[in-house]
Amino acid sequence: MALLEVRDLTTHFSTDDGVVRAVDGVSFEVEKGKTLAIVGESGSGKSVTCLTIMGLNTGKVQTSGEALFDGTDLILLPKRELREYRGKRISMIFQDPMTSLNPVHSIGRQLREAVTLHEGATKAQANSRALEMLRAVRIPRAETRLDDYPHQFSGGMRQRVMIAMALINNPDLLIADEPTTALDVTTQAQILRLMNELQRDFGSAIILITHDLGVVAETADDVLVMYAAKPAEQGACDDVFYRPHHPYTWGLMRSLPHLTAVGAELNPIPGTPPSLLNPPSGCRFHVRCPYAMEICRTVEPPLEPAPGDSHHLAACHLEEAVKQREAEQIVSEMMADTA
User: Fold this and answer.
1) Of the CATH numbers 3.40.50.970, 3.40.50.300, 3.30.365.10, 3.10.20.740, which one belongs to the domain with range 4-220?
2) Model's pTM, two decimal places?
């Protein structure tokens, strides 16, 4: 049984301009000890999906669907009961640690607070646990850093502190929202390696929100590709990378820089994502899709399994032969680039 089962989740925001359909029918599962990567451009609904699960959306919001966490529907929980889950059984690492950490409180105080709030620990117990977690995320001279403030840490170190804070109560599920944004390549690799090691040690499930396919290939077990608030493709990481079935996934993969073509121009997906106030009819990607047919403009494609693989799903009207041909071409290009 999956630790988290999300079923037909929708999140709509009422604004002065109309209703923003930020999440529009998303379903997925996350098993304990596994990593699900949610991929897509900015505004595709990745973060809002996870904020909905955590009950952290603000404003005039309407939510429907299910988010079953260990059998309990988080969507139906009263706020008071949901707070018992947040920080204890479910934790989240936000994009920017500098704005997520309180600048007027020491790192030690913020770590201790997370323990005392959910575990009822004494100050000495909380302090010991805080020190243990700083050491676990490899903060140098951890015993001397508890009284330091966020501005005294580098970007990479602040991100490590956020990971320590998220894991301090041994949560069952960790949600990491772009955890390597604005970090240099070396620090990115260290943070990802650290998350993998801590997942192995603590057994937590991870939802990784990212737009970086390189990060996905290195860390994920399963992948959900979102476009304009809807799932475009989902399945096991190897299936999505080596047998991609959706033109949007092809576009994301082809937009990656080529290692062997120094100075070559990037190949971005043309156009921009549609407004979620008034999304296009049919397939939401058809406006930017070079393979679009008339049916794509009028009929929304269902999320269907690939032949012979009920766990690999894609929402596309193209014939299977076309999908197979394009997938083989993309994989061939990728293999040639890494040869």
Assistant:
1) 3.40.50.300
2) 0.91
